[in-house]
């Protein structure tokens, strides 16, 4: 016996609606800050009922966690599209992409005026776009290929320090015309700091480029999985974003 009731919604329409809500959330948070942005505000800006938002996310925190996860996916996709071929180019791509994403910048900076309590999560979520075992494995492969010297080690920490240093230079951070220059300086500094100083053969250079893109692909896949878990409305978003 077939039950008569409300027909299921098209998943594609549900996803489009969820992204429209996230678009509205981003616009309002950048304008007013997280603390002053309410679900009512978001619903009005997105052109949906307040209850519709709760079909996707049970709380405002879950909604914002999904927004930050989407920002990370978009950032990684942009970096990957640039096809970086070295460790320096990878981080230069991060710098360029981050300069175009004020929400991720705010998370990295710990901007409590914009993000409120979400700044406390930056140690787990926003400290670096590349922390973790996959990065260590990638760097180890570069050492093996002769692209990065083995000593003194801690290349990930050095690269992150360079990235943070240039991103937090006062004045001009948000100017679009400075993004390419900062990206170049980040890439050049990291390559000079970590390089063995010996030219690579064509095969080794190709292997380094493949390893870089493979790392990015893996990072993007993980980010997309976390975003997908935040978009369905049935799974509770994890507190790490």
Can you walk me through this structure?
The protein is mostly helical. The protein is 66% helix and 0% strand. The chain is built from eleven helices and no strands. α1 (11-32) crosses α4 (60-81).
The amount of helix comes to: 55-70%
The chain-level structural class is mainly alpha
Q: Cα distance, first to last residue?
A: 43 Å
Low confidence ranges: 1-8, 123-127, 233-240
- The percent range for strand residues is under 5%
| Main sheet properties | none
Give Rg in angstroms: 20 Å
Number of helices: 11
Rough outline: elongated
Mean pLDDT: 84
DSSP summary, beta strand count: 0
Write the H/E string, N to C: HHHHHHHHHHH
Map the helices and strands.
Elements: H1 11-32, H2 39-46, H3 50-56, H4 60-81, H5 87-98, H6 102-109, H7 112-115, H8 133-145, H9 155-167, H10 176-194, H11 202-231
Helix pairs in contact: 1-2, 1-4, 4-5, 4-11, 5-9, 5-10, 8-11, 9-10
What would you say about this model in short?
The chain has 241 residues and is an all-alpha fold. The protein contains eleven helices and no strands.
């Amino acid at each position: 016996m077939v039950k008569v009731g409300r027909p299921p919604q098209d998943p594609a329409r549900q996803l489009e609606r969820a992204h429209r809500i996230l678009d509205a959330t981003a616009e309002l948070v950048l304008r007013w800050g997280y603390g002053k942005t309410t679900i009512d505000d978001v619903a009005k800006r997105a052109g949906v009922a307040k209850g519709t938002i709760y079909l996707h996310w049970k709380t405002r925190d879950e909604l914002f966690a999904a927004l930050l996860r989407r920002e990370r996916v978009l950032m990684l996709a942009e970096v990957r599209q640039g096809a970086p071929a070295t460790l320096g180019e990878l981080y230069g791509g991060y710098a360029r992409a981050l300069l175009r994403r004020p929400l991720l910048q705010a998370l990295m900076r710990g901007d409590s005026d914009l993000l409120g309590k979400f700044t406390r999560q930056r140690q787990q979520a926003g400290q670096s776009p590349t922390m973790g075992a996959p990065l260590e494995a990638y760097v180890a492969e570069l050492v093996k290929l002769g692209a990065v010297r083995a000593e003194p080690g801690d290349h990930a920490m050095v690269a992150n320090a360079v990235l943070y240093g240039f991103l937090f230079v006062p004045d001009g951070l948000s100017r679009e015309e400075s993004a390419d220059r900062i990206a170049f300086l980040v890439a050049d500094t990291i390559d000079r700091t970590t390089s063995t100083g010996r030219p690579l053969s064509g095969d080794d250079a190709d292997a380094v480029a493949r390893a870089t893109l493979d790392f990015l692909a893996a990072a993007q896949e993980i980010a997309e999985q976390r975003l997908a878990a935040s978009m369905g409305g049935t799974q509770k978003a994890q507190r790490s974003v």
